[in-house]
Design goal:
The chain is an alpha/beta fold and about 280 residues long. It has helices at about 25-45, 60-65, 75-85, 110-120, 135-145, 170-180, 205-230, 245, 265-270; strands at about 1-5, 25, 45-50, 70-75, 100-105, 125-130, 150-155, 185-190, 235-240, 255. Helix 3 (about 75-85) links the parallel strand 4 and strand 5.
Length: about 280
């Protein structure tokens, strides 16, 4: 990927010598998009944890963190490994100018092979995993206990994408959290969701409905968990570029995880979440 300031007006001749395929990014627009989402998060007192999968570019991650992002969301162990590997520290201090990476792996992992990879990353970054099934959580806990470590975990909620996550039933979610708290080598952080079905919205009104529903479902579930465990901190994380500017304004939501906003492609324009 190359990031350039785009000359105005466009002159197609300047691109003819370039080999293809090639991704080129208008730098000023990229900077504006990053700054605008960061400003939105600050205005609404939200943590911003952008998705890495849109750009998979170290330079853009650094730009996002410099603009105040609290951490990074990755979609797989492989993405986490690649990002940590590229996160070079100062040999004299053993630290990075932007600090230790704070990563959320927003996809459930299973099996000792994946748990071992996560444990290795856990020592190199502040890592949070996602769980949505009690047997998988118990398996992760057993691995952590055997190895004398603790994993931070968030519970995934299905708010309509129907890919993974618990159904948004208050009793079911509270019961799941209650059982999770018994697993002493897992640290419960909060609830998260991804309203990715907003990308299939047929118009702006449908997108807005999905976004509002995402925020309200999650906020209500957060209240249900806090009613059962009043002293328990519960982060409420929502995420998808088409929804966060609405779901992120719902009282009780604490974190947003957009990804595509750095580019705002034609899909965002079609959905009315960008111009």
């Amino acid at each position: 990927m190359q990031i350039h300031n785009r000359p105005k007006p466009w002159d197609i001749k300047q691109f003819l010598p370039l080999s293809t395929p090639r991704v080129m990014v208008h730098y000023a627009t990229l900077c504006r998009n990053i700054a605008e989402m960061s400003d939105f998060a600050r205005r609404h007192n939200l943590a911003l944890r952008p998705h890495f999968k849109t750009h998979k570019t170290l330079e853009i991650v650094q730009m996002q963190l410099k603009h105040g992002a609290a951490g990074v969301t990755v979609a797989s162990l492989s993405e986490a490994e690649a990002l940590i590997s590229a996160w070079e520290t100062d040999p004299s201090t053993g630290t990075h100018p932007l600090g230790k990476l704070d990563l959320l792996i927003a996809f459930p992992i299973v099996g000792d092979d994946q748990f071992t990879r996560a444990a290795r990353l856990n020592g190199q970054a502040r890592l949070t995993l996602m769980v949505d099934h009690m047997e998988a959580a118990r398996s992760l806990h057993a691995f952590a206990r055997r190895n004398g470590i603790t994993f931070r975990v968030m519970v995934k909620i299905n708010t309509g994408l129907n890919r993974c996550g618990l159904d948004p039933d208050h009793k079911e979610v509270v019961s799941f959290v209650e059982r999770l708290l018994e697993l002493t080598h897992l640290q419960f952080i909060g609830l998260l969701t991804h309203a990715g079905h907003a990308y299939g919205a047929e118009n702006e009104a449908e997108r807005e409905r999905i976004a509002r529903q995402e925020g309200e479902i999650m906020a209500q579930l957060g209240e249900a968990v806090k009613a059962r465990f009043p002293s328990l901190p519960v982060e409420i994380s929502v995420g998808a570029t088409p929804t966060v500017r609405i779901s992120g304004t719902v009282s009780g939501v604490t974190e947003i995880r957009p990804g595509n906003y750095v580019f705002n492609d034609r899909t965002q324009v079609r959905l009315g979440s960008a111009t």
